[in-house]
Specification:
Layout: H1 32-35, H2 37-44, H3 54-57, H4 91-198, H5 209-214, H6 228-231
Length: 232
């Protein structure tokens, strides 16, 4: 035996049938039909019927479909209009102007290239001349330096031979001079020795200073300290 479902003890949500219906809310944005009645009527209206010439202008699609409507069946304000053609310029005048401008630019370019080439050629010639002059100067300096070295070597060799010869001659003269001087000194010593032997002792006090200084011979023992310097 089935029992009827018992009612909930604590109904949270009451039945929607017991609630009253809400009042209608006014619309903030009116409909397009209210704003544009003519456009809404034109859009909702049926399309205009095709003219009898539409089938001849636009053939039917392959497979037995209906013929497409032509632009003549639509209002003229909806048909797109072609863009206006560009302004026509006389061909001769434009070609002449473009050719003259191109000729002028080509002539300017050619003259500029010629000037640049002449300038570069002139600069290149100057550089070549400068290098040539510097090379010639270096060669001349090298040649002069080599000549100076050769002259120095010749002079050195000549001076060496002459110096050796001069040294030999000076040595020979020195030997001769020393020999002659030694002979003279020996003669003087012999003469002084002879004079000192003959001279009495009292004459030692009156002998000249040079004689007293240059005396190298043997003196008597009792007069060897009695010189004019000692007396002074």
């Amino acid at each position: 035996m089935q029992q009827a479902p018992s009612a909930p003890l604590f109904p949270i949500f009451p039945s929607t049938a017991a609630l009253p219906s809400p009042p209608p809310v006014p619309s903030l944005f009116p409909s397009a039909a209210a704003l544009f009645p003519s456009a809404a009527a034109a859009i909702c209206a049926a399309p205009p019927p095709l003219p009898p010439s539409a089938g001849a202008l636009v053939p039917a699609a392959a497979g037995g479909g209906a013929a497409l409507p032509s632009f003549s069946s639509y209002p003229q304000e909806l048909v797109p209009k072609p863009a206006p053609p560009p302004p026509v310029v006389p061909v001769a005048a434009s070609a002449r102007a473009s050719s003259s401008s191109s000729d002028d630019s080509d002539a300017d370019d050619r003259s500029r290239r010629k000037r640049k080439k002449r300038g570069s050629d002139r600069e290149g010639d100057k550089e070549k001349d400068r290098r040539k002059r510097s090379d010639e100067k270096k060669k001349k300096q090298k040649r002069k330096r080599e000549e100076r070295e050769k002259e120095k070597e010749k002079r050195r060799r000549r001076d060496g031979r002459g110096r050796r010869r001069r040294d030999e001659e000076e040595d020979e003269e020195a030997r001769k001079r020393t020999k002659e001087e030694r002979e003279k000194e020996l003669q003087i010593e012999r003469r002084l020795m002879r004079e000192d032997v003959r001279k009495p002792a009292a004459l030692w006090l009156t002998e000249p200073v040079e004689y007293a200084h240059n005396r190298t011979t043997h003196e008597p023992p009792h007069t060897h300290h009695r010189t004019r310097h000692h007396i002074r």
